């Protein structure tokens, strides 16, 4: 079973090759330019989380990601090859290309607090974040969990792992390919 990241990339690639874009999905409504709180200027923008939104300048393969505040001011310069939303004061960032780049975490000042060293990573929830260690191209690796210092607290042993919620995390057993839950 391919991990979620690979499936999303496949769907996006199919949509891009078929010429489907978000702009083509709705043509009946037009917004007045004065209704924008932050005028369109980014090549992609994620929803706000903890007062900041990740934005991309440039295309999805070579563009850089940074963060803006609710006034539209850039508070963390676009410098990352990928970025996720802030959660518990930290945001996942990737340095390097999609296939070989490494993931780490930054704080709201843009300072790296956990060095990019993981092949993939999810968001912090309940003090822990899922991280993937191994060859992401060949799907040879495992998911485990780190704390906010970057220390591994649940050894990589799962085929896939979601962030914790209500004290439990959904994980995939690599042998049975079935999902279950683990506790912190």
Describe this structure in words.
With 184 residues, this protein is mainly beta. It has 2 domains: 42-118; 120-184, no CATH class. It has 1 helix and 15 strands, in the order H-E-E-E-E-E-E-E-E-E-E-E-E-E-E-E. It has a 4-stranded antiparallel beta sheet, with no helix packed on it. The longest helix has 15 residues, at 4-18. The protein is elongated and about 55 Å long. The two termini are 25 Å apart.
Strand content: 35-45%
Structural domain tally: 2
Query: Per the principal axes of the C-alpha atoms, what is the gross shape?
Result: elongated
Measured between the Cα atoms of the first and last residue, the distance is 25 Å
Largest sheet, strands/sense/barrel: 4 strands, antiparallel
How many distinct beta strands?
15
Radius of gyration: 18 Å
Q: Please list the strands of the largest sheet in the order they lie side by side.
A: 1-2-3-4
